[in-house]
Amino acid sequence: MAEIKIEKKKPVWPWILLVLILLAIVAFFVYQNQADDTYYDDDNTDMVDDMDNSIYNDTTTFGDTYYDEGSAAMTGLMESLKDSTRFGTDSTFTKTALHNLAKLTMAKAQSNNVESSSALSDLESYTLRNNLNDSRTDNSNMAADFKDVTQDIVTVIESITNKNGTTMQQEVTQLKETSSKISGTTTLDKQQRTLQTFFRQAHDVLHSINS
């Protein structure tokens, strides 16, 4: 009588174990991704927000770790020098350039630990009160104010170079001579060449400090 061979069924549990292992691996990666997203959303976003606040809450503080207002003023002054033909003829353009020069001078003074002085205080007051949106064209009042501010700028720059120990006496002397030629009674459009020279010389001296 022929024997009937009965094949034994292969056990199912190895496949079940394999499926469980795969599910565990998938669950691990899903959890890991969620944990990373939570870290970024909760911690990193707060950190970025705190950094933004520290930068913009007090943008008038010179030497701030996160916001170098001196660099912004230097950039603005350089942009003005590219179109220097507008010095004296465009009141808003001229005052913006002077405003940036004053702020740059103050920033350099702070970074070099220059002691407080009346000239430095006057520059700070000027940057706070200056109305850049004044649409009036050149006039004698603006010229007088311009003369006072440039004298304060030269005084502070001289203090910076003395404190810094830089060998720029000749450049500072030339800047003082140019400043002395600026008239407080002649409208600025009549002094365009002098203004161009003054801004360029002041920029060159300040750019050389700590560079």
Proportion of residues in β-strands: under 5%
- The overall average pLDDT, rounded, is 78
Integer-rounded radius of gyration = 33 Å
| Main β-sheet description | none
Number of distinct helices: 7
Describe the 3D structure.
69% of the residues lie in helices and 0% in strands. It has 211 residues and is mostly helical. It has a domain at 69-208. It is elongated. The model is unreliable at 39-67 (pLDDT under 50).
Task: Provide tags for this entry.
single chain; 211 residues; mainly alpha; 0% strand
Summarize the entry for a quick read.
By secondary structure, this protein is mainly α. Helix content is 69%, strand content 0%.
Secondary-structure topology with pairs:
Blueprint: H1 13-56, H2 69-81, H3 91-111, H4 118-129, H5 140-164, H6 169-181, H7 192-208
Helix pairs in contact: 2-3, 2-7, 3-4, 3-5, 3-7, 4-5, 5-6, 6-7
